[in-house]
Amino acid sequence: MALPRLLVLVLAGGAGGRLQLLTEHRAKPAVPFAGVYRLIDFPLSNCEHSGIPDVWVSIQQHPASLADHLANGRPWDLDRTTGGLMTLPPFQGTERGGWNTGTANSLWRQAELIRQFGPEALVVVSADAVYELDYREVAEAHLQSGAEVTMVTTEVAADDAARYGIVEVDGDRVTGYAYKPDEPATTTATNEVFVFDPGPTLDRLEQLRSEVGEEGLEDLGTHLLPAQTRDGGARAHPLKGYWRDVGTVPAYWEAHQEFLSEEPPIDLDAPGWPIHTRGGRHSAARVLDDGQIENSLLSGGTRVSGNVRGSVISPGVVVEAGATVVDSVLLPGVRVRSGATVTRAVVDDRVDVGSGATIGGDGDVTLVGRAVSVPEGTEVSAGARYPDPEEDRPTR
Question: What family is it from (predicted)?
């Protein structure tokens, strides 16, 4: 029996404002994770291991940061003569041209292209979460169910549920859906993986567009998913494994801490399901002189002569002798000079932390923006943003 014709659409165009300084100069899906990966590596690796060769990536914010990483799709076996990886930037020239104003709006703008492709099932995913999932398995179950949409779901903490689309289920049937509700009815959330029946879904989008206008379509959870739920066309597919939305700075930091455990929630090098990325650009890591590493992830091209504990060290980072890094995430090219201390912080690309400077401490996670110099002896308090967005930014 021939495999069903599937298409994956990765929605990678959001602004990612909740990640603050981390998305000031890069697309959210291009944000580094666990040292050498980018967030978009997770859905693309899922496509590879699910045996889905047709993957489209809708891009918008800071497209160069994604284009450089995606290249021709080779790390995920998507460099094909027919099919493979295709990027979809904003365009002009038709009535559907323009800037995407939400995920449903983005899907509407690509509707004609999707219809021409003719998939039996359309898998729509975001690129700001860390998880493993066989999309083909979900799609095949969706096709057998006769539903208009299958929502992949997961359980979230009660005090965090208001950030998500929340569903009520009866068996596998979705009986209620609320998008980012003030008072969530359950803690069962959609994890931004949806499998749609393309024809009915795109027809419904056209009807909604005639009612609310193209900008009024907004996100999938604003009108589309509630309408599909009301008409009895939605089913749930629980995700049994690990899933973590890393769309906020605290969640991003906490996810890194989870991957520092002796048994991380996902084996990133699992023989049957490795997470692939564009790599090969860094030499081996080096621990020099009196450098000490404890319970940390150390990436290629790093040089550690200081003390690093409970931290994720990305490619090209230098921690000089006498420097201390504790419970932190250092993104590519950071330099922590002698005598400096970095605690419970996320430090963006190419930051130079001056000698004797102190960043963070016990309390909320501290965030340091990209390519800044933290002067010698500076103290950045726990939970702060540096530089302060209201002040002039020091640059190198």
Answer: Belongs to the bacterial/plant glucose-1-phosphate adenylyltransferase family.
Q: Do 100 and 108 touch, CB atoms closer than 8 A?
A: no
The correct answer on CATH 3.40.50.1000 for the domain covering 6-258 is no
- Cα 352 to Cα 75, 119, 252, 333: the distances in Å are 31, 49, 21, 9
Residues in the chain: 396
d(CA 103, CA 101): 7
How far is 124 from 6, CA to CA, in rounded Å? 11
Name the token pair of 67: 């284009």
Averaging pLDDT over each range in 59-68, 81-90, 96-105, 106-115, which range is the top one? Answer: 106-115
Q: For the chain, what are the domain ranges?
A: 6-258, 286-386
Closest by Cα among 169, 175, 201, 173 to 188 = 169
Per-residue pLDDT at 392: 53
Q: What is the pLDDT of residue 92?
A: 82
Take residue 134 and report the two structure tokens written for it. Answer: 């066989």
Q: What is the pLDDT of residues 2-26, one digit of tens each?
A: 789 999 999 998 777 889 999 998 9
Rounded to whole angstroms, how far apart are CA atoms 9 and 242?
Answer: 22
Note whether 380 and 340 are within 8 A (CB). no
Give how far Cα 394 sits from Cα of 288, 339, 342, 357, 386, Å.
30, 21, 19, 15, 10
Residue 174 reports pLDDT greater than 60:
yes
Q: Domain 286-386: state its class.
A: mainly beta
Q: What is the DSSP string of 54-92?
A: EEEEEE-SSHHHHHHHHTTSGGGT---SSSEEEEE--B-
Q: Count of alpha carbons within 13 Å of 70, Cβ hemisphere only?
A: 26
Q: Are 108 and 217 in contact (CB under 8 A)?
A: yes
Integer distance in angstroms from the first to the last C-alpha of the chain? 60
- Cβ atoms 318, 332 nearer than 8 A: no
Q: What are phi and psi of 197, to 5 degrees?
A: -80, 110
- Is beta strand 173-179 parallel, antiparallel or unpaired with respect to 303-304? unpaired
| Nearest alpha carbon to residue 126 among 222, 40, 251, 26 | 40
